[in-house]
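Suppose you are handed a protein chain with no further information: no name, no annotation, nothing but its sequence. What can you learn? This example shows the usual starting point.
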Amino acid sequence: MIFKKYFSALIFLLIHSMFLFSSQAEKTIKVGVYDNYPKVILTEAGEIKGIFPEILEIIAHKQNWKLDFVTGSWSEGLQRLKNGEIDIMVDVALSEKRRKIYDFNNISVLLSWGRIYTTPDEEINSIIALEGKTIAVMKNSILTNGEDGIYSLIKKYEVDCEFQEVKDYYQVFELLDKKKVDAGIVNRQFGAAFEDKYIVKKSDFLFYPTPLRYAFSKDADHNDYLIEKIDDNLDKMKKNMNSEYYQILTNYNLYPKKKLPPLIIPMILGLFGLIIILLILYKGLKWQIKKQTQMLKTTNLELRKEIENHRQTYKKLKQSRENYRNFVENIPGIVFMYDQDESGNRTPIIHSQRYKTFFGEKIAEEIKKDYNKFFEYIVPEDRKRLQQFSNDISNYIKNLDIEYRIRIAEDKINWFRSIGKVKKLANGKYRWQGVLLDVEAKKKAEEALELAAFQWQTTFDSSHDVIFLLDKDQKVLQANKASKEIFGFDSEEDSKKYCYEIIHNSHEPIPDCPFTRMKKSGKRETKELELENGVWLLITIDPILDENENLVGAVHNVREITERKKAEQKLHLYRTDLEKLVRQRTKDLEQKTSELEKANRELLEADKLKSIFLASMSHELRTPLNSIIGFTGILLMGMVGDLSEEQRKQLEIVKKSANHLLELINDLLDISKIESGRVQLSQEFFSINDLIQNVIESLQHTAAEKGIKIKQDLPQKIEQYSDQRRTKQIIINLLSNAVKFTEEGYISITAKKVDGHKLEIIFEDTGIGIETKDLNKLFEPFQQIDSSLTKKYDGSGLGLHLTKKIVELFKGSIEVKSKPGIGTKFKVLLPLYEGK
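A reasonable first move is to predict its three-dimensional structure. Written in structure tokens, the prediction is:
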């Protein structure tokens, strides 16, 4: 009855599983695993075992999932999960910090805690006892880096000890076993499983109880589904004491085995004895049946294998025939193979279906009946050539390559080409095999090419200019008729001469020849040449290049220009008088130019002296100003006595004015350095994002006092290799200028890469704006657009002038757009160097 009940249940499960399999597609889940016995085990045979994988496999089987285990270290698994390369990571301790990085299921698989193990001669039962010890820990473990992990406890109790990080708990016990460390930390499951296999001592110090769960890639699309199914199955298994969950824990000694009732053992022994008696009664018969059945199974299996082999062989043969048929029927020609006997008759080995396409239905039908009919349609004179070729086969074997014409209609003859091989068979006969190609289009192209060559030669000879076609060594390949008239060139006798022999009567190349210059420049070169008889020639050389731009020859053109040269000589006489007049006027102009250049040099020298003066004076002024600022600060701090309210007020005015004057002097010094060419840009790596953030933080308080919001848009991390201080000076000047002239609204700063090698920084505000007519004065020194603004807004008018100087020093550019009452927009473009 029990057997029937279980059998019915088994049948129901099988049918239900088949229904689920047919109704739901198998889903592949990537699972990260690492070696951490007994929670996760990577066997030497490559199998994945352990509590977490085995529970997940049970759930996957029920949900029709396919698990793809991805092995690696603990750190690698967490990184893959963070990058979304896997769906689930097993055996992850839950913490608030990790909740921000990963998603977790809601039901814990196990509860774990940390335990300290020591070498046999150590006695550690508290956190204080770790003082001065060396401790082995697993890298990135929750027991190591967790909120209440060993690192946190050591810091909390101010214990001075040394840690040695390893990749797994096996190495922790190995270091303890070899006494290379004083203590080691493992979880309670691993310790219980392996503490007897190493020379280690278990302490009574326990810490950080944590729930162990499955972790998921943060906010992945299928997380809700996976978590729901895993939690549902875990909940059911944990409520059922006879479930696979408790069986797995029992197998790994994490759950006590059930004790059998006292009478169960005698009952089992009695039942076992009865079974033995029954087995003895039918053992012989069963052995005989089993032997015969096994023989039948073996024979049947071998027969099935043989049938399958035959089926596969036939399938391959069929596919091979199909491939060959497709090849024969789809190549741009007719595949032929025939044997020729001593009498000349031909016996086809294969017959193509494409004869009808090439020759028409009438000839195709005749060839199908008698292959020898094919040769009757070959034009008689070509048939003789083919017959002679066939006769030569008896003397030696050679490749087949011959062209001939076939009359495919009364008024139509096409050219064909046979390509293949002729080989002698064992019986002494010959076999012809190859491909027949339709070359009618090729023949027509050749005829068109011959016609084009004739037309080109006619045009070539009709030119009155001398034209030589030369190779790359100046040898004459071809010349037109005009070459004979001027140079007496004979096509037969002079065809192997060089152009310098024909034109210059020289036996070696001319150094200043246009051909020599053309070989170097790769471009057209020209030269005018006067012969001994007074005839002038214009020589033009044009290069001939191949598809790789390599020189293969040249076109040498010679034109008589005697009449033109005579006209030029007459023109030269007129020009001579004109040039005399021009020289006189030029002399007067040069004198005026010299005087102007002298005045310009004097102005430049004065400007340089001004810059040097400003640089020197700025240094001299900064020293007393720094003293004024410093001592004023000491007075304000009360270090030399208490001050009255009025005295403090007056001293603050002095300090503010001194700081303002120092800023002005610093700007003057920077400008004078740039103008005198004494600025050396430093080079270092820095982050544009961090630099902008620092400037914003320095101006945030001033902007907040005016109720202005500073926005930033830095969509990508930008690294720069340049002068960090000068770059910061540009950003400070433009951003502080925006804060100064903006009373309400906002200021935005945007930085991004443009054109692959440029840095674009845009400053935009909702300030007072500038009239279009005043924009050209914006970057001039000591300028404020409206004189009335000087009273309201402090400033020397040097900030934007200095900013432009620095941008130009970087070889960059700065642009400005503005509308009164709406705001101003500055755009700075700087070269971007991301590496040395």
